[in-house]
Amino acid sequence: MGDFFMIETLIRPLEKTCQTVLGILENKCQRCGAIVDLDNRDGYGQLYCRECLAFGKITEKTTLFRYERIIARKAHTLILPFTLSKKQNEASRFVVNCLNQKQIGFLHAVCGAGKTEILYAGMLDTLKKGERICFAIPRRDIVNDIVLRLKSVFPNSVIKPLHANAKDDDNADIVVSTIHQLIRYYHEFDVIILDEIDAFPFRGDPLLHRLVKKALTIDGVSFLMSATIDSELAQRIHRGLIKTFTISARFHGQSLDIPQIINVMELNTIIQKDHNLPAVIIKWLNYQQNNQIQVLMFVPTIKYGILLTETLRLKGFLATFVSSKSNDTTDVIGHFRKAKWNVLVTTTILERGVTFSNVAVAVMATDNQIFDIDTLVQICGRVGRSWEFPHGEIVYFCEEKTTAIIKSIRYIKKMNRQGKREGLLNNGMPNLR
Q1: Model's pTM, two decimal places?
Q2: 86-247: which CATH topology?
Q3: CA 231 to chain centre
Q4: Using one digit for the tens of pLDDT, what is the confidence trace for 251-260?
Q5: Alpha-carbon gap, residue 17 to 70, rounded angstroms
Q6: Strand pairing class (4-6; 185-186)
């Protein structure tokens, strides 16, 4: 039989073709692919898998159902409301070649270079072959946004989200899923696009890596994307295991903005203990507000964010807060886009995958260890993402410079130099499209 769908929690019509398999065979979990230690036994003496226990207990006597997912043939089309730049077209051909040759590819592109748009031609080729695509994303809050973008350019294709609150993938040609939801699939997708592969929680999580491998068909291929490269990926590229294409400039031809470092003595004490804001920060916020520029303020912890938001409100700023614990993230982001809030305080949950037209960025306590180089580069990428506003201010408020702070600025300058060498930058005269 072809590809099968694992339905530990999803129930499908019984008339569909089905295979069953025991949850653990030869000490291997058939749901997550983990090797089960023989000492992992429950109170009934049965082997069980600890690796995927969060998805529900699975034992050697559990029965897994693998249902064939039927997809109707369609006349897939791609409608682009814009023209790709020369460099984007080169990248698009790279994607097409990687998918056709079943070769793992990596698109290394600066934030705002149009990574998703570059995928479209390759995705269309895949769909026309009758093959199935999964667009896998680390975080749930980005899934719905990608679904809307794909629906706007693939009008004849069925595109559905899959996350904790969305479980319907019937007849979907493209499934846009959080990586955790791949636990529900077995040899299902011909292509899995992995966005932001160096982001939490995918980075360094063997379970999620196994789920991707299990969800691919036997001859399926994964395609990777990110604006940054972690050490593990760098090693695979160096060994020639992954083909790579780099885009060092954004589509509008403007250079990446360089963060400004502002040292504030006893910054954390002033905010967390005194419940106050240093004068330099108030001055900076007032400048942005007077120029009708909204502000994203990144914080290292939820507690820090709550305190900062309360203080901002006391100082007269229209501020709100969002984190991984928020239940209304989508609504908050929507209201921010409509300018209901002047300031959006956020944890690193918004470091990737979100686009705002005209914002400035402040990173509070940038010397906190949570702000590593990759995180800072992604945060800096939130500004200057539109034709109308190709630049924006970025400020690191900190008590001392860290290696991550220095390296993030060095990396951004390196990309600007590379973009200039390649003739991709034309500051003041956008001409890439």
Answers
A1: 0.86
A2: Rossmann fold (3.40.50)
A3: 18
A4: 888 999 999 9
A5: 9
A6: antiparallel
